[in-house]
Amino acid sequence: MSYSKERHIAELAVQRACILTNRVFHSRVKGTVTKDDKSPVTLADYGAQALVIGAVNKNFPQDNIVGEEDAEVLRQKADVREPTWQYVKETIEQSQEVVGEIGSINSAEEMMDLIDLGVHAGGPTGRIWALDPIDGTKGFLRGGQYAVCLGLIVDGQVTVGALACPNLPVDPKNPDGEKGIILSAVRGQGATLKPLLENICADEPGIPIKMNAPASFADAAFCEGVESGHSNQGQQASIAKKLGITKESVRMDSQAKYASVARGDGDLYLRLPTSMTYEEKIWDHAAGSLIVEEAGGIVSDVRGNPLNFAVGRTLKKNNGVIAAPKNLHAKVIEAVKDELKAVL
Ligand SMILES: Nc1ncnc2c1ncn2[C@@H]1O[C@H](COP(=O)(O)O)[C@@H](O)[C@H]1OP(=O)(O)O
Ligand SMILES: [Mg+2]
Ligand SMILES: [Mg+2]
Ligand SMILES: [Mg+2]
C-alpha cells in the first residue's frame, strides 16, 4: 500500500490544527487546566484534538484512535467548552478550502464527541491513529517548541507519521527567520519536510530529508528536553561526556527534538527515564520515531530494543528513548547501559 491518502490527510489535519493553536497562543485566554497528573492542558489541546480527529474520522471512519485528551472537562465547564468551540468554529471558517477533504464540525456537542473518539486502548492489530494534539504543552505556553503529532500504527507498527512544528525555523541556519515546518513519512518511503503554510490547500510536495552521519562524537550535537522531570538531564550529560561529545546540548520541548535530529539540525536525541516505572505514551513517539527512522536513523529504548507500539496506549515494554544515526547508535547504547547499570 502507498498510504499516500493517509499521509496527505495527516498533513492537512496537523496543519489545520496549527491555525487554531497559533490563534490561541496569541490570545490572552488559554484556558489552562491542570490534569490529575499535574500536567497542563489548554483549550488549544482540546480544539486541536477535535479538528484532527474530525479529519481522520471523515476519511477513515473504521479506524481506531488513541488521543491524549478527553472531553470530560469540556462537558463539565462551559467556560472551557465555549471558547474552545469558538476557536474550532473560527478555524474551520478560516480553512474552508479544505473542509471538503478534512471535514467540518457543526456544534460544541459534535466537537466533544470527536474528542472522545480518542479513547481506544491501542494494541497489536488493526489500524490505530495515535494523536498528541499539542505535544509540549509547557513549551507551547512559554512560546517555545511544541508539535501537533499524528501517527498511524498498522498491526503494531508505525506506518505513517506527520509532525507539525510551528516554532521550528524553516531554515535552521537562520533561526530568527521564517518559522513553521511539517515533516511526514511513510514506512519504506522516506521522510520529507515542507514549510507550514498559512494557505493549507497549497499542497507542495515535501523535500526529502536525511539525518546527519557525523564521523565521530566529537562532531555530534545532542538534543534533550527542557523539563528536568521528563528526562534525566544529569545522566544525559554524563553519557555525553563518556562519548566525547563536547558541544552543549540543545534543549527543546516536544517531538520537535525528533524533527531537529531527522532534518540534520542535531544528531542524537537522548531521553533517559527519570523513573523506571514511567510509561512513555504512544502519541509522544509514534510520528517522531518513524520520521527519524525514515530519515536514516535508529530509534530504540535505553536497552537498544525497538519501541513496541503494539501493547496499548503506552510503551510499557520500553524505558526511555535513544535516537541516533546508524553509525553511532550501538556506541550510544553501550554508554547508556554503562550509565544505567544499577537499574537495567
Ligand atoms: N515523567 C515523565 N517522563 C517522561 N515524559 C513525561 C513525564 N511526564 C510527562 N511527560 C511527557 O513528556 C512530554 C513532553 O516531553 P518533552 O520534555 O520532551 O517536551 C509530554 O507529552 C509529557 O506528557 P504530558 O502530555 O502528560 O505532559
Ligand atoms: Mg506529549
Ligand atoms: Mg499533549
Ligand atoms: Mg499533555
UniProtKB/TrEMBL annotation:
Keywords: Hydrolase, Magnesium, Metal-binding
Residues passing through the membrane, by range: none
Annotated residues for binding of Mg(2+): E68, D132, I134, D135, D284
Catalytic activity: 3'-phosphoadenylyl sulfate + H2O = adenosine 5'-phosphosulfate + phosphate; adenosine 3',5'-bisphosphate + H2O = AMP + phosphate; adenosine 2',5'-bisphosphate + H2O = AMP + phosphate
InterPro entries: DPNP, Inositol_monoP_metal-BS, Inositol_monoP_superfamily, Inositol_monophosphatase-like, Inositol_monophosphatase_CS
GO biological process, one term: inositol phosphate metabolic process
Pfam families noted in UniProt: Inositol_P
Keyword Metal-binding: yes
Cofactor dependence: Mg(2+)
Molecular function per GO: 3'(2'),5'-bisphosphate nucleotidase activity; metal ion binding
Entry keyword annotation includes Protein biosynthesis: no
EC numbers for this chain: 3.1.3.7
EC category: hydrolase
Summary of the function given for this chain in its UniProt record: Converts adenosine 3'-phosphate 5'-phosphosulfate (PAPS) to adenosine 5'-phosphosulfate (APS) and 3'(2')-phosphoadenosine 5'-phosphate (PAP) to AMP.
Family: Belongs to the inositol monophosphatase superfamily.
NCBIfam families for this protein: bisphos_HAL2 (TIGR01330)
Protein name (database record): 3'(2'),5'-bisphosphate nucleotidase
Species assigned in the record: Ascodesmis nigricans
